[in-house]
Amino acid sequence: MAGAIAVSFGLTASLALAPPAPPSAAAELRAYVDAHAQGLRVSPTAAAEHLEATGVATRDSYTATPGIASLAASGTNYDWAKLVLVFAGWPITDANVTVLTRWMRQENSPKNWWNRNNPLNNGWGASYGPGGTGSNVSLVAAAENAADALLTHRGYAGIRAAFADGSSTAAIESAIWASPWATGHYANGGHWHYTPVDVVQAPASAWG
Asked: Where is the signal peptide (predicted)?
């Protein structure tokens, strides 16, 4: 009887110490939306005065940044590039998206740019299997990890500044080559390609 109690206690303790399961892609999405909720506030006085004077309620135009769900639903390599920019807080400019898609092509063929859910071959936050290659649970997690690496590593300060400006592909690419991201530094641009990158959609399963 005492032995049975001891075994039962051991099983209970083992179960109690089991690590929690990692969050799902859907849970990560909900957490991001909750943390970055947006709203539009209009002065009640201004709105009332305008309506009284014109009889028409109008609003100024405004723009919106694409969100995680819409980018994941579209699911292309260009959408993933924009997702990195969203997570990093950088502007979604033509220059920024162009460089990111070119950079992705340097690391993976556009035909399977989602390989191992790691389009930039970023080791930051990735898990490693027997082959030593980093992988992510989803492309959403991969974008968040890539943004986190670029924002955190002191060697990427030049990349951060160039993406934050978002106006010059040459400035961003030069910063990437000079950084420690790739040990070969892309031959200081000698191995870089400038032709347009094909738009390729990843399987829905890669997005989580």
From this structure: 1-18
Q: What is the phi/psi pair of residue 130, to 5°?
A: -60, -30
Q: Which two three-digit tokens encode residue 80?
A: 């993933």
Element housing 134 (H / E): strand 134-135
Kindly tell me the sign of the dihedral angle through the C-alpha atoms of 96, 97, 102, 106.
Answer: positive
CB contact at 8 A, 103 and 172: no
| pLDDT value of position 15 | 46
Looking at the whole model, is its pTM more than 0.85? no
Question: 89-103, pLDDT tens digit by residue?
Answer: 999 999 999 999 999
Cα 59 to Cα 26, 38, 47, 119, 154, distances in angstroms:
34, 17, 9, 40, 43
**132 residue type, one letter:** G
Instruction: Give residue-wise pLDDT tens across range 116-158.
Output: 999 999 987 777 654 446 899 999 999 999 999 999 999 999 9
Give Cβ neighbours of residue 171 (< 8 Å, ≥ 6 apart).
162, 165
Domains of the chain by residue range: 64-208
Neighbours of 143 (CB within 10 A): 28
Place of tokens 């179960």: 15
CB 134 within 8 A of CB 121: yes
Q: Are 64 and 86 in contact (CB under 8 A)?
A: no
- Confidence band (pLDDT; 50, 70, 90) for 178? very high
> How many Cα atoms are found within 13 Å in the side-chain-facing hemisphere of 84?
30
Q: Which residues contact 164 (CB under 8 A, 6 or more apart)?
A: 90, 91
